[in-house]
Amino acid sequence: MPAKRSKQSDTLRAAQMYYLQDQTMDAIARELRTSRSTVSRLLSAARDSGLVQVQIKTPADLAPELERVIRRRYKVDVHVVPVADTLNEMDVLDRVSMQAARTITPLVDSNAVIGVAWGSTLSAVSRHLTRKTTHGTTIVQLNGAGNTQTSGITYASEIIRRFGTAYGAKVEQFPVPAFFDRAETKRLMWEERSVQRILELQSRVTIAIFGVGSIDAEVPSHVYTGGYLDSTDIDDLEASGVAGDVATVFFRDDGSDEGIMLNERSSGPSLASLRKIRRRICVVSGAKKIKGLRGALAAGLATELILDETTARELVEQESAQSDPIFGFLNSLDGL
């Protein structure tokens, strides 16, 4: 334990000397009585863990303005990830996931209960997590993953396992179907003590981390491609005007969810229960998810939003210039 504390202390000290005091790595190595290569590793650890976040500002950088508009309009803390228009959707997802991992890690503390929803976006985020030592922290799966073709355990548990490994946390899976065949079956299952234990743990979640599902995204949401929904389910969602989902709970683009019958069979947390969680981190990549994102924001599901620049611009552009004067300024800038 002392060795870990010493390394953390050295990481902080090296970062302060390098970034705040403009000391060279050789000078830092002499003061810390270590090698230059060790200092390089300490600085890399400081960046990877989120202790140091490097921002490059240019006159053409739209991210700060986009963040300001989105923050004011939707009342969320927002991180816009600059990306080139030439990148494909998988590369954009990778960039956004990397930023999300760096944003999440500093927020995770000991004795916390972290709720994680499975999905294509969270799978990518989980691959970029860096290690942080915590004590008494639990990672709990927010929604079941079973379907008629597979138990879903391998896919969902791998995501949850990566979060647990990164933070040295206990992992609690939720081994139930994503959607029950009948709402009555779900009601009876929710009375089982083994299930109630997970539900009680979910009620104590302090940070929820999730993406937004969309049926027409270029990187398809796993719930729409993994055998979870049949053609009747898809038809029902379209008839109900569904825009997207969070943790396999569906909503319209105005944030409403009344009358969406599939939600009665979903194992995911209700939108009302999600809104009770103090910190709710939503990660979105790809402009095709804009309809679902708007619905999630209208429903008040996110307190923090991490998204790519293209999607952020699309989110801002969909409001008229009359409703937001800053929009006109943004629209006049090159590249918007």
From TrEMBL:
<dbReference type="InterPro" id="IPR051054">
    <property type="entry name" value="SorC_transcr_regulators"/>
</dbReference>
<dbReference type="InterPro" id="IPR036388">
    <property type="entry name" value="WH-like_DNA-bd_sf"/>
</dbReference>
<keyword id="KW-0238">DNA-binding</keyword>
<protein>
    <submittedName>
        <fullName>Sugar-binding transcriptional regulator</fullName>
    </submittedName>
</protein>
<keyword id="KW-0804">Transcription</keyword>
<comment type="similarity">
    <text>Belongs to the SorC transcriptional regulatory family.</text>
</comment>
<feature type="domain" description="Sugar-binding">
    <location>
        <begin position="65"/>
        <end position="316"/>
    </location>
</feature>
<keyword id="KW-0805">Transcription regulation</keyword>
<dbReference type="InterPro" id="IPR007324">
    <property type="entry name" value="Sugar-bd_dom_put"/>
</dbReference>
<dbReference type="Pfam" id="PF04198">
    <property type="entry name" value="Sugar-bind"/>
</dbReference>
<dbReference type="InterPro" id="IPR037171">
    <property type="entry name" value="NagB/RpiA_transferase-like"/>
</dbReference>
